[in-house]
Design goal:
The complex is a heterodimer of chains A (156) and B (497).
Chain A lengths: L8 E6 L3 H14 L3 E6 L2 H8 L16 E4 L8 H10 L8 E5 L4 H10 L3 E4 L4 H18 L12
Parallel strand pairs in A: 1-2, 1-3, 3-4, 4-5
Chain B lengths: L5 H4 L4 H65 L5 H19 L8 H28 L4 H144 L5 H32 L5 E4 H11 L1 H7 L2 E4 L4 E4 L1 H17 L8 E13 L2 E11 L32 H11 L3 E7 L3 E9 L15
Parallel strand pairs in B: 2-4
Antiparallel strand pairs in B: 1-3, 4-5, 5-7, 6-7
Helix pairs in contact in B: 2-3, 2-4, 2-5, 3-4, 4-5, 5-6, 6-10, 7-9, 9-10
Classes of the chains: A alpha/beta (156), B alpha+beta (497).
Chain lengths: 156, 497
């Protein structure tokens, strides 16, 4: 029996596309997955959030995510670079990262897994598809996957 | 390229043959003359010898007569019987010598008569001498007769001496003449020999020079050919390099094109996705607040987005015919057609279509692309069917020969004939152009890229496509593809997915 059923998962999504962020939010709502969704626009903001820097200094407003949904093609710092940073940082590398991108490129897939992503998912074309995905993601990551107990407070 | 006239190039030109023939003739003439001269000289030598022999014989005769006379005188003067021995010997000798002279064969005209005359005189003389001796032996009283005989003998002897001299003179003269002639002949033939040898050497050296010239000519010829061959090799090398470079550039250009097409289509599809997604959301979330018109507009918007998405996909497929074309392999059209017909099973059932397929050839082609081609044509045949008639499609093939430039090329001719709605023959070219449609969207669906893809595929296979059609009757698509078909793979090294 999963131990954190009661606790909603904090999902941090990094995507530069306004519409995609909106749709994902809608889809998550439709899927009825209990969640706490936060959004960032690019790799720089993503790392700032994770390191509680800049406008993300207030920890209470920026809870540590249990899952990162990462788009690959973003300005300033793209998903690949951000992933590398996260997985090289001892404080951050334990956070599971799911790549969610439009790219079907083999090279991107290989790179993603090599850098340490948990999964690589191509964005569904239709809204229904997106809802299905969110449901599935939710069921998997929230209901079945276990995180360490003091995950939120983890520091090395 | 210069073309030498055949005459100059023949291995043995006319003049060389002529020279050889001439030398052979001259050498033969030389040999002939040599033999003739030797024969001549021998003959003359013989004649000279003969003359000498004659002179000797005549002289011996003279001596014999003198000996006889002296023998006779010896006996008659001494009256000694001992002197009869030399006399008798001289007489035998005289007989011998007369016989020898009678055997003489002289060339000198008149000489024979003189000799005969001389011999008769000598015989006469002999007789008188003999007579005197006989008288002497018989009787010593006949001494007075001897004296008379001596007088008679003297006049005889003078005659005989004169004849001897004359005969000898003639023979000597003849001999001298013969000697002169022989010397002259020797001198002449020597001169002639030298002249001929000289001419022969000149001709021989001439011939040698000619031969040397012709070998040199051949050598130069060969060198020229070698040089030309080398130059050609160089040019071919250059051309090959050019072609390889061009092929590389083409492959590079194709890769760039494909990358662009892929990225463009990808980036173009993305907004369409959004349009479809959000219009769906509006329909879902606000259907209650939308009236019929609103819902209709939304639908049209969505459909337009879907169409554009399909259009972009079609364009990408169209461009990939070139950029992602595969190398040609052996393709059995029967198998290919079978698979396509299987794929179209649903549509075939739905329209109750019947497809007759003849035995088709094995061709050299890109199997994926030819499948696409057949699929597109058959799909059209099923789509553009007559309302009340089930589609009947015939697939046939033959082999033909077409004269091109200076040679003939063999082609396979594939015909796909349907009994659909057909169209006006004047549009026969137009329908192969991208996005050209002959019907409204509502009547028949499709972007109008199907036949453009078909034509591009067949042209990539070095072939052609034409259509024969009649409105209300049907259409026949005729494909020609070369039997011998090679294609350099100028597609990309790594396919983009």
């Amino acid at each position: 029996m999963p131990s954190n059923l009661a606790r909603p998962i904090t999902i941090l999504m990094a995507d530069d596309d306004d519409d995609d962020r909106l749709m994902t939010q809608d889809a998550l709502e439709e899927s009825r997955v209990i969640n706490n969704l936060h959004m960032v626009k690019d790799g720089v903001e993503l790392l700032e959030y994770l390191r509680r820097e800049g406008k993300y200094s207030d920890a209470s407003l920026c809870p540590r995510p249990g899952l990162i949904l990462l788009d690959l093609n973003m300005p300033r710092m793209d998903g690949r670079e951000a992933l590398n940073e996260i997985k090289s940082d001892p404080n951050l590398k334990t956070i599971p990262v799911v790549i969610l991108t439009t790219s079907k490129d083999e090279t991107d897939k290989i790179k993603g897994y090599t850098l340490g992503a948990a999964s690589y998912i191509t964005k569904p074309v239709s809204f229904e598809g997106l809802v299905e995905l969110m449901k599935t993601l939710g069921k998997y990551w929230v209901e079945f996957v276990e995180l360490p107990a003091d995950f939120e407070k983890q520091r090395y | 390229m210069k073309n030498k006239t055949p005459r100059q190039d023949r291995r043995f030109p006319m003049w060389e043959i002529a020279s050889i023939v001439m030398i052979v003739i001259i050498v033969s003439v030389n040999a002939f003359l040599a033999f003739k001269t030797i024969a001549d000289l021998s003959q003359r030598h013989a004649r000279v010898t003969n003359t000498g022999n004659i002179i000797v014989a005549v002289k011996n005769l003279h001596i014999a007569v003198l000996l006889l006379e002296s023998g006779q005188r010896g006996y008659l003067l001494t009256d000694n019987e001992e002197y009869l021995e030399p006399y008798r010997r001289a007489l035998d000798n005289l007989h011998l010598r007369i016989r020898a002279v009678k055997d003489i064969r002289t060339e000198i005209p008149g000489q024979a008569q003189r000799i005969t005359h001389l011999v008769s005189l000598i015989e006469e003389k002999k007789e008188s001498l003999v007579q005197a001796v006989e008288l002497g032996i018989a009787d010593k009283e006949g001494k007075a007769m001897k004296i008379i005989e001596s007088d008679r003998g003297l006049s005889l002897y003078i005659d005989i001496a004169a004849y001897f001299e004359e005969i000898e003179a003639y023979e000597f003269a003849w001999q001298a003449d013969l000697f002169n002639k022989v010397e002259k002949l020797q001198k002449d033939s020597r001169t002639l020999f030298f002249v001929f040898i000289f001419i022969s050497s000149i001709l021989l050296s001439f011939l040698l020079i000619l031969m040397k010239k012709s070998t040199r000519k051949e050598h130069n010829h060969r060198k020229e050919l070698e040089e030309r061959a080398e130059k050609l090799e160089d040019i071919v090398g250059e051309r090959t390099k050019d072609i390889t470079l061009y092929a590389e550039k083409l492959a590079y250009s194709n890769r760039e094109l494909e990358e662009f097409a892929f990225v463009a289509s990808h980036d173009l599809q993305e907004p369409l996705r959004k349009i479809r997604a959000f219009s769906d959301r509006v329909k879902t979330l606000y259907s209650s607040q939308l009236d019929e018109k609103g819902a209709d507009y939304l639908n049209r918007m969505n459909n337009a987005a879907v169409r554009m998405s399909v259009l972009i996909q079609d364009l990408l497929s169209f461009s990939r015919i070139t950029t992602q074309g595969g190398t040609f392999t052996e393709v059995d059209l029967n198998d290919l057609a079978g698979v396509v017909i299987d794929d179209l099973e649903v549509a075939i059932e739905a329209s109750q279509a019947v497809i007759h397929c003849d035995k088709l050839p094995i061709i050299q082609a890109d199997s994926r692309q030819i499948s696409q081609l057949i699929l597109n044509v058959l799909s059209n045949a099923l789509k553009f069917r007559r309302e009340t008639t089930a589609p009947i499609i015939h697939i046939t093939s033959t082999q033909i020969s077409v004269a091109e430039n200076d040679s003939t090329t063999s082609y396979y001719e594939l015909r796909i004939k349907d009994n659909g709605i057909g169209f006006d023959q004047s549009y026969a070219d137009k329908i192969f152009m991208p996005f050209q449609r002959l019907h409204a969207r509502e009547t028949y669906e499709g972007t109008g890229i199907g036949l453009a893809i078909v034509r591009r595929i067949i042209e990539r296979h070095n072939g052609t496509v034409t259509v024969v059609t009649e409105e209300g009757i049907g259409s026949e698509f005729i494909f020609r593809i070369p039997v011998e078909n090679d294609q350099i793979d100028n597609s990309l090294a790594t396919p983009i997915t």
